[in-house]
Amino acid sequence: MNKTKRAIFDSAIKVFSNSGYNGATMDIIAADAGVAKGTLYYHFKSKEEIFNFIIEQGMAAIKEKIESIAVKQEDILSKIKVLCRVQLGFVYESRDFFKVVMSQLWGQESRQLELRESIKKYINYMKSYLEEAMKQGVVKKGDSYLMAYTLFGTICSATVYELINEDKTDIEELIENLLGNILSGIQERNEN
């Protein structure tokens, strides 16, 4: 991504997060990015095109970061832990992006439908890790698609927890607790 597109990307996330999709305008995004309106229109024809661009780039960044760390792990459980860590960490570091995603997840407008498709692709990506873990006997066999959605939803819920309780949360402790709950469940087990 070139410098101008990067500035537009960062500004669009901030503007969509602060003003909502409907409150954001091309003028505000251009001004925040420090580019002329014509420059903005040179790169993007519409606000919706900018929105779709930030979603595409944001989701790609999560996958790239996961892959760059997971490739160094030897076992699939460690790779799943990396996936959880990176997704939660990314959302923690990119709160505005997460806020934009969550605010536009529902609805029937084309950007919302495209966003859901992006999330679905990411869920399928998560599913591939879980299926590998099932093959290796590390994760119990079951509906890997539902498990991937559950994992994604759990991480998103933990993010909401962190956002609400940010003054009380140690992010590393949150990640460890989340991974423990995901991998071991929340049910108390009697060792009789």
UniProtKB/TrEMBL annotation:
Superkingdom to which the source organism belongs? Bacteria
Q: Where is the HTH tetR-type domain?
A: 2-62
Keywords of this protein's UniProt record, alphabetized?
A: DNA-binding
The answer, when asked if DNA-binding is one of the entry's keywords, is: yes
Q: Output one GO MF annotation.
A: DNA binding
Q: Which residues cross the membrane?
A: none
Q: Does the keyword Flavoprotein apply?
A: no
- What's this protein's name? Fatty acid metabolism regulator protein
What is the species listed in this Swiss-Prot or TrEMBL entry?
Clostridium magnum DSM 2767
Organism ancestry = Bacteria, Bacillati, Bacillota, Clostridia, Eubacteriales
